[in-house]
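Sequence design from tokenized structure. All designs in this work follow the same two-part layout: the structure record, then the generated sequence. An example of the structure record is given first.
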């Protein structure tokens, strides 16, 4: 098995902690020195109780570890603030049902809405309706088709996720002649899958010695991960590294790898499940890294919604308003830095 590169060896690094950590700093109430030209501290949200804000939260059904972590992060963040009331829906993967839940929150006249739509494009009208009713919307992850449907978007970087996975593997194999890699993707009918694959392929263009020899699409489930990984292993008798788009399906992939008795390659996961981080920490399997798609974005969305409801910006920025978009960084978690990220791992 190739030697695992250090953090310094990565082209893009893994030091960034993402928007969750950024906004924790942004909402702190520690005094900052004024530059003498612009002092926005009076207009910035902080941890001190302020105007009471009711935040409506509408997301899809938590039928996946990552989606459940979204709900957990939202609830836990809201509990941090004595001035925030969180009105959270049950969640649904049925577009019509979720639109109905959003209508209910609009009729309740919540102060701000945080929406992770089951389908961003088909639910754009729900965001527009809220905005036209005077309720600002924080659009979480799956973006609405019309920017007028939200005040702020916060989410992950699918392209960057693939790019960082590709650079990690590229640095690992850069000195190996005729290196081979495989990819276990998510469903190809999802735009996020296409973006993750594109980022991965673009990164590998920097390493002419590496060739992708196989790609299978799974469905973000343990069962499909196991079945598709078994097919790859049967067809490819040897390769050097693989990238798996999702840690949930990665559980199945690892089962197939164990059953085949293979340990001749390095596996890189995706999303940041706790099980993946624990396996990386134990260092007793082919899984050596995972590229984050942080569910902490839901906590950041609550921070932003609270600031919106209180008519404030975020400290650390000169502007008196929150930004219109915030893209989280896809950090690469390895044995070297896994302790930093374990608290964010989802079950």
């Amino acid at each position: 098995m190739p030697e695992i590169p250090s953090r310094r060896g990565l082209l893009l690094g893994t030091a960034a902690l993402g928007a969750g950590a950024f906004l924790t700093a942004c909402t702190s109430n520690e005094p900052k020195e004024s530059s003498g030209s612009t002092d926005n501290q009076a207009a910035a949200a902080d941890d001190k109780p302020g105007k009471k804000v009711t935040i409506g939260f509408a997301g899809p059904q938590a039928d996946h570890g990552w989606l459940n972590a979204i709900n957990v992060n939202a609830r836990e963040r809201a509990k941090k603030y004595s001035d925030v009331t969180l009105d959270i829906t049950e969640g649904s993967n049925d577009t019509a049902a979720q639109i109905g839940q959003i209508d209910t929150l609009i009729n309740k006249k919540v102060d701000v809405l945080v929406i992770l739509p089951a389908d961003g494009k088909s639910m754009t009208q729900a965001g527009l309706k809220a905005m036209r009713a005077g309720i600002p919307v924080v659009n979480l992850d799956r973006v609405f088709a019309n920017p007028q449907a939200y005040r702020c978007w916060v989410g992950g970087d699918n392209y960057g996720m693939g790019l960082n996975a590709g650079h990690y593997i590229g640095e690992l194999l850069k000195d190996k002649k005729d290196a081979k890699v495989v990819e276990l993707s998510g469903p190809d009918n999802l735009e996020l899958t296409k973006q993750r694959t594109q980022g991965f392929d673009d990164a590998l263009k920097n390493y002419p010695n590496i060739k992708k020899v196989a790609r299978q699409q799974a469905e973000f489930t343990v069962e499909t991960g196991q079945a598709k990984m078994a097919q790859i292993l049967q067809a490819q008798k040897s390769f050097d590294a693989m990238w798996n788009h999702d840690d949930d399906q990665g559980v199945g992939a690892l089962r197939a790898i164990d059953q085949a008795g293979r340990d001749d390659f390095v596996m890189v996961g995706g999303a940041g499940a706790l099980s993946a981080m624990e396996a990386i920490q134990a260092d007793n399997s082919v899984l050596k890294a995972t590229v984050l798609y942080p569910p902490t974005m839901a906590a950041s969305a609550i921070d932003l919604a609270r600031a919106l409801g209180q008519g404030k910006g975020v400290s650390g920025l000169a502007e008196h308003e929150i930004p219109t978009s915030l893209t989280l960084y896809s950090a690469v978690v390895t044995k070297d830095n896994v302790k930093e990220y374990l608290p964010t791992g989802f079950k």
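The longest strand covers residues 210-217. We note this feature because it recurs in several other targets discussed in the main text.
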